[in-house]
Design brief:
The structure is a single chain. This protein is α+β, with helices and mostly antiparallel strands. It folds into two domains: 138 residues, D-Maltodextrin-Binding Protein, domain 2 (3-Layer(aba) Sandwich), CATH 3.40.190.10; 220 residues, Periplasmic binding protein-like II (D-Maltodextrin-Binding Protein, domain 2). The chain is 46% helix and 13% strand. The chain contains 18 helices and twelve strands. Strands 4, 5, 6, 7, 10 and 12 form a six-stranded mixed beta sheet that branches. It has a two-stranded parallel ribbon with strand order 1-2. It has a two-stranded antiparallel ribbon with strand order 3-11. α2 runs antiparallel to α15, α9 crosses α11 and α11 packs antiparallel against α18. It starts with a helix and ends with a helix.
């Protein structure tokens, strides 16, 4: 009776979220699904509830570690100790560890890897991983505040963007907020896209081949970021604001623009469902670039204790029902075949731009020593914001770090 009631509750929850429950429950599969998740339980609820509705006799052992550094540290500790759960999440920041360390079950022969369900672009970036969606990021801006200040269009150049910030400030609004705690979503990454990558798509490859220096392509983006600090649009105290608080301040209309990603759309809607906002890119001198990338995805520990349950979970996540549940949970736009989400108007233009290649995330091109470079980049962002280093010093640190880790 308890199992029946649990199944009814799960189905009811999924129906309330608009997720189809047309699949038949499979009571033959038993065991435990152990997960070290990139997402907290409230965020993952649509996915886990949908899986439990399909497999009511599977127990879920769910562990969460917040990304990025805490997740990688927790995962690494468990892998080295031989106690890692069956399902792990691969990100740009830990793919080198997972693949080079030979920790993953080979999924290359699975149907969903062979029939086009998982696109080739995903398989090239994440080996043996069922990543199914992409996220987009940039400046979330309050359209009502823009209108109140007489701003009737998104700025298309860096000078226009600074003018918009000044107009917002002159009208008594906090124009911008970025805590510089995310190497994937910040001003400098898309500015590198517009100022360097757009002109030389092979720049990063040249750096790793010893034919160029990071400083050659990253100094200018750091200098442009520093302009926002010098003009008072970004302030040193922002580095201490949590990402969650930043989203709350935006949703409650205390700030006109914040740097964040599409995974926060559902949070904003839960706080202020009537907020009228969109995501715009960061205007450079000539190009507008966004943040974005293929999202993290689940993979299977090759020493899984319950491999059949783990395989069933991956197969579920790439099914139409699983894809719908993940879109509901994480807000990324689906790239796997089998489900086409109805995108929020807030992210439609951003998605189109990312699909057209107008985005940059550094870690996608830092194919070796990714985490060392990410941490160096993040520390440099924060140091420029608080005035502890110059843009030139920040860019040069990447060269110093690459030389250091390459010599080890």
């Amino acid at each position: 009776m308890k199992k029946f009631l649990a199944l009814v509750l799960a189905v009811t929850m999924l129906a309330s979220l608009g997720i189809s429950t047309a699949f038949a429950a499979d009571e033959s599969l038993t065991g435990t699904l152990s997960i070290l998740s990139w997402y907290d339980e409230s965020k993952s609820a649509p996915v886990i509830d949908a899986f439990k509705a399909k497999y009511p006799n599977v127990t879920v052992d769910y562990t969460y570690a917040p990304p990025v550094a805490d997740y990688i540290e927790k995962m690494s500790t468990l892998l080295y100790a031989g106690t890692a759960p069956d399902i792990l999440y691969m990100a740009l920041e830990n793919r080198e560890l997972l693949t080079m360390g030979d920790y993953l079950m080979d999924l290359s022969g699975e149907t969903y890897m062979q029939d086009g369900t998982i696109p080739d672009s995903v398989k090239e970036m994440y080996e043996n991983c069922a990543a199914v969606d992409c996220w987009v990021g940039g400046l979330f801006y309050n359209k009502a505040i823009f209108a109140a200040c007489g701003i009737d269009h998104e700025p298309q150049t860096w000078e226009e963007f600074k003018s918009v910030c000044q107009t917002l400030k002159d009208n008594g609004y906090v124009p911008l907020m970025d805590n510089c705690q995310d190497a994937a979503v910040n001003f400098v990454a898309p500015l590198f896209g517009s100022e360097t990558k757009a002109k030389d798509p092979d720049f990063t490859a040249k750096v790793f081949a010893g034919e160029a220096k990071f400083a050659d392509g990253w100094t200018k983006p750091f200098e442009m970021f520093k302009e926002l600090v010098d003009l008072g649009y970004l302030t040193a105290d922002m580095v201490g604001i949590s990402s969650d608080d930043m989203v709350v301040q935006f949703a409650t209309e205390q700030v006109a623009m914040i740097m964040t990603g599409s995974w926060n759309c559902s949070t904003i809607a839960s706080i202020n469902p009537d907020l009228d906002y969109e995501i715009m890119g960061i205007p450079g001198t000539e190009e507008v670039y966004y943040c974005g990338c293929i999202n993290v995805g689940p993979c299977i520990n090759k020493n899984a204790k319950d491999p059949e349950v783990a395989k069933a979970f991956i197969e579920f996540t790439v099914s139409p029902e699983g894809l719908a549940a993940q879109y509901q949970a994480y807000g990324g736009f689906t790239v796997a075949q089998g489900y086409t989400p109805e995108l929020s108007p807030a992210i439609t233009d951003a998605v189109a731009a990312v699909q057209a290649g107008q985005y940059h995330i550094p870690m996608s091109e830092w194919v070796t020593n990714t985490e060392s470079l990410r941490l160096t980049f993040l520390a440099s962002l924060q140091d420029v914001l608080v005035g502890n280093c110059t843009p030139a010093e920040a860019a040069a640190r990447l060269d110093d770090k690459l030389a250091e880790v390459s010599a080890q």
